[in-house]
Structures are given as structure tokens and as C-alpha cells.
Amino acid sequence: MKKIFLFVLVFSMLKIGFIGAKVESKSSSNDVKLVSIDSLKLMKLSKAGKKLGNEIKNELEEFQGFIKDAQKELIDFQGTISKQAKILSREALLEKGEALAKMKKKAERDLVDKEDSLKLSIQRRQVVLRNKQMTVAKKVFDDKKWCMMIDSNTPGVLFVSNAIDITDQVLKIVDKDYDSGLAKSIVEKEKNKSSLSSAKKVKKG
After folding, report:
1. What CA dihedral angle connects 128, 129, 131 and 136, to 10 degrees?
2. With b meaning 16 or more CB within 10 Å and e meaning fewer, what string describes 123-159?
3. What is the pTM of this model?
4. Which of 12, 33, 102, 201 gives 147 a disulfide partner, CB atoms 3.0 to 4.6 angstroms apart?
């Protein structure tokens, strides 16, 4: 039991894990107690992960195209103003300048909104995929009857078997220690009361 928790501590501090739920080569599958997975590798190399990766790549390329189109529209309009500067009146130039400023603000708002929407969409789909894969990992964990599984990319433990859970045992000891401390506190209070009472009687006498 102590060895298992020692391994968990070491792996958490150093962020080292057995990739793909591997264990020491000398151990058989029945001997496995502590296993580790690389969730990032799982997401990147899995079929579903590759599919999502391609979708995200296409969406990012589309976003880059949107940025280029917006920039080109502004540059073209600015070029038009420059060409017409000599023939336009002062009022007309001011109107064109105001129109260009409005175009820039609108383009900036549209880009920010589109970028935020894209980020949110990517994050949401990544979370959904991770949850699905972790559900599968939990099923494998239960089927293999492993004691503990950690992720080499995140701190803490993913799954723990009830077979190594000693919470109830520790709870009994904790409560026993609390009761013991409470009893001692009551005894000390009674002693203090008795001493104080004796002192008062002496003074009266």
C-alpha cells in the first residue's frame, strides 16, 4: 500500500508517467496496480482526435482568409480615397475618412467576435472528446481491475479503485482521536474548576 502511494507522489511531482497505460516489462497484466495514460497523445493520435484536428485546421485557415479579406477591403478603400484626394472636396474627403474609420472599427469587432466564437467552439469540442475518451479509459480501468490511473499531463489521480480506499478506516481513527481530545479537554476543565473552588475556600477561611 505504501509503495502505491509513493509512486503516485513521485509521478505527480515529476509529471512522469507510463505512456499508453504501460507498466514495467517484467510485470504481467494481472500484476498491474498503478497505470498512466497520456491524455494529450490520446487526443492527438486517436481517430476522433485526428478528425477534430483536421476540422480545427480548416476552420483556422478559413479564419485567416477572413482576416485577409477584411484587410484587403480596407486597403482598397484607402487606396481609392488616396487616388481621389486631388479631385474631391474637403467635405467629401472628410466623409470618406469617416467611412474608412467606421469600416476599420466594424472589421475589428467582426474579427474579435469571430475569433472568440472559434475559440469557444474549439474548446467545447475538445472537452467533449476528452470526456468521451476518459469514459472509455474508465471502462478499461474497471475491466482490468487496476488500482489507480494517473494522467502524465495533469496533476492528481484520474481513477482509484475502492479496493485501496481506506477512507473509512482513517475516519474511525480520526473520530477516535477527536473523542479522546474532547475527553481530555473536559477533564482539564473539571480540574481547573476544582482548583479554583479550593482556592476560593482557602481565601474565605
Report:
1. 150
2. eeeeeebbeebbeebeeebeeeebbbbbbbeeeeebb
3. 0.64
4. 33
Residue with cell 479631385: 87
The chain-wide mean pLDDT, for the chain, equals: 83
Residue 199 has which C-alpha cell? 482556592
Three-state SS at 149:
strand
Q: Cα-flanking dihedrals φ and ψ of residue 60, to 5°?
A: -70, -40
Cell numbers given for 83: 487616388
pLDDT in tens, 150-163: 999 888 899 999 88
112: cell is 474579435
- Residue 150's beta-bridge partner residues? 36, 157
Predicted pLDDT at 5: 37
* HSE toward the beta carbon, residue 61, CA cutoff 13 A: 6
Residues 165/168/173/175 CA torsion (nearest 10 deg): 140
35 in helix, strand or coil? strand
Torsion of CA 9, 15, 20, 23, to 10 degrees: -40
SS3 state of residue 34: strand
Each residue of 20-46: pLDDT tens digit?
333 333 344 445 589 999 999 999 999
Closest CA to 108 of 61, 55, 67: 67
